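Progress narrative, Year 2. Work on DNA/pantothenate metabolism flavoprotein C-terminal domain-containing protein from Euplotes harpa advanced from sequence curation to structure prediction during this period.
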Amino acid sequence: LTKCKEDSKTNGVVFLTSGGTSVPLEKNTVRSIENFSSGKRGALMTEYFLQNGYHVVLYTRDNCLYPFHHYFTKQELFLMSEQDHNYEKYVRVKELYEMYIDNLCMVTFHTILEYLKGIKEISELLHQAQKVSEEDKPQLSSITILAAAVSDFYISEKHLSEHKIQSGHHESGLTITLEPVPKSMGKITTEWNPYTMLVSFKLETDEEILLTKAKGAIGKYGVHCVIANELHSRYDKAYLVKDTAEPELIFITQEDKEQDVPIEKYIVEKICAEHVNFTQ
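Result:
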């Protein structure tokens, strides 16, 4: 963050969450409930924010897909040679990696409780870095983007089994009571970092309720805008939802698909444009 403040050319810092959280069923965890996410969307968005002049703090699930690394498997990288058909792509990605890696900080989480703790701590660190000037404006501009797949329910620590749950003790079936995860989104702009522009993601399987749910998050949690998408079309289209305007469709064309241009490129462009207006 200090380096970002000293960079006169930066557009600010993006705090981006990615990947899915894990809900342990035991303290000495053998079993867990997973919110699955590969982390690819977060990895791609990180790359595009770096290319748009931002520093990025990527808060991601451990062992997810990471920026610049997700294009190739470990085996492909190990066997890569100049004769490989992917070699030119490898060179381009490597050049981007070397160009932007100093502007990227990655922090990992695993469980839902680790995620919640990190959201608070990183937001507060950002707030401290955004020292207010005499004109009552933050000296460092930030965007907080919640793109992680976060569990809605969990087992609180006091109710966790100490050791592995034994199947022999539950031959007639196992009943687990889950509690709602404490809500943290609303605290980001009210308590932890009031200066940030907050963006959340909303994923639904029913497109009919998607935009209604997205609009509801704006008033409920103090979100500047929501990127809303439906499960089966999330790689092709999304909506930028704001409280003061009609939802704006973001999509990729057939030409984009043929040239491997992902929708994340256009999502990032929309968020960057919103940030310019936010800081004026």
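The domain at 2-195 is CATH 3.40.50.10300 (Rossmann fold). Residues 51 and 100 are 8 Å apart (CA to CA).
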